[in-house]
Every structure is written in C-alpha cells, then in structure tokens.
UniProtKB/TrEMBL annotation:
GO MF term list: ABC-type transporter activity
Membrane topology: Multi-pass membrane protein
Transmembrane annotation, as ranges: 42-61, 73-98, 119-144, 156-177, 189-208, 254-276
Organism: Actinacidiphila reveromycinica
Subcellular location: Cell membrane; Membrane
Entries under PROSITE patterns matching the protein: ABC_TM2 (PS51012)
Name of the protein this chain belongs to: Transport permease protein
Amino acid sequence: MTTVGAGRGAATGTEPPPGAWRVGLLRGAMELRLFFRQREQVVFTLALPIVLLFLLASIFGDDMPGTGATASQYYVASMTAAGIMSTSFQSLGVSIAVERDQHVLRRLRSTPMPPSAYFLGKIWLVLVTGALETVLLLAFGTVVYGVELPADPTGWLVLGWVLVLGTAGCALLGIAVSSVPKSARSATSVVVLPSLVLEFVSGVYILVGTVPGWMLTVGAFFPLKWLCQGLRGVFLPPAAAALEPAGSWEYGRIALVLGAWCLGGLVLCLLTFRWAGRDER
C-alpha cells in the first residue's frame, strides 16, 4: 500500500537529482583535489606573494614618517590583495580558457550538471585557496614584520567583508576575461598583462602616495585598488590614512565599489561567457 503524501522519488522508485548548490559543493571539492594534487602549482601559488613581500620589505622597509607604520607593514596588506588577485582573477582567467580550449567546458555543458554548479565549484576553489594564502601571508607578516591583527570584532568584520567582496569581484572579472583569449596558448599572456598593470596602478608595488594621480584614477575603476585600500585600513594604524588620496580609508566607498563589481561582474559573465571556442559550432 502506497503511503499517502510520498514524494515523486518514492513513487517512481528513484531519488530526485541533487540541486545546483549540492552539485556545486561536490564540484568545488573536486577542483580542490585537482589543485592540491599538483604540488608544484600549490607551492609556487602560495609562496609567490610571500617571496614578493620579503623582497619588497627588504628594499623599502623603512618607517613612513607621520603614519606610525613601516613600509614592510604596508606591503603585507598589498601582497595579501595581490595574492587574492592571483588566486582569483589570474587563476580563473587562465584555467577556464584552458578548459575551453581542451573542450572540457563543452563536455560539461552536455551533461545533466547545472551550469551554475560549474561556477560554484570555481568560486569554492578561489575562496579556499585565497583564504589559505591570506592566512600564510598574515602569519608571516605578523611574525616577521610585526603587523597587528584586528583587536576587536569590528576590525575582523571589516576584514571579512573586504575579503569576501574583493575576492568575489576579482573572481567574476577573471571568469569574464577568460573569454578573451583565442586559445590556451595565449591565455597566460592575455590575463597576466592586465593583472600586472592593475597591480602597479592600484598601489600594490608602489606606495599609494607616490602613484601618479591619473594612474590611481584608472585603478579606481577596478576592484584591486579598493581591496588594497580596505586591507590597509585593517592592518595599518589610523594615522596611515593620510597616505590615501582622500585622507581616509573610505570604507563606505570601498563597499559600494566592490559591491558594484560583484553585480556588474556577474552581468558581464552572463553576457560574455562561452562554453565553446570561437571556432567551434
């Protein structure tokens, strides 16, 4: 006798297919396994920002008068932002272009997997690797350069939303730019060049007070500049806000711009993303 109110799966003897969220979690777990299996990639991805931090701090490690901070502490915030840019924008821009060129996307598109699950898997990969890289950088900066972590819940809250919005904005920009390269061979060159330019005009390698105004204006149109500024606000003393063009950390504007990039980046991805190469039908 069939139980009244039984679901469709019970009536037909089959279970309903998993939703996009669950499939996205499984896809993310697979992406993480593939990432950590490539030991050389893991080592170089996580070590690069730390090596750059050591080099820049060794060269420009002097005190910054009137700020209560050192250039070494400044570069801890900058390299944290650059590390997120690397694991999100660069990583997704190159890897998705390679998967498209190798027809991986085309095969995935022909499966029952919801398209959104593929992107959820990539986002999980970015969030985990970005968080791991951030922890390593902050641990190194705290031990070696005396960077002070937030002392109250408000500081941790600011750090949290800056990292989440900044990572999401950079990741969506990376997904969108993955459609620009014509092949996997050109993907690295196409993605790395704009990333390097953005790092210079956003105050990553050069103290923001010495970057020409027109460069800062260009950088202000992209999420990296605001991600750097938000992290400086978390890790540098309040007096260091004098280095910023506006003389303050501008948390409201940071949230507004990064939030706009999350929404705008999503629209850009929906308009430009391709599952197959340009020469494929």
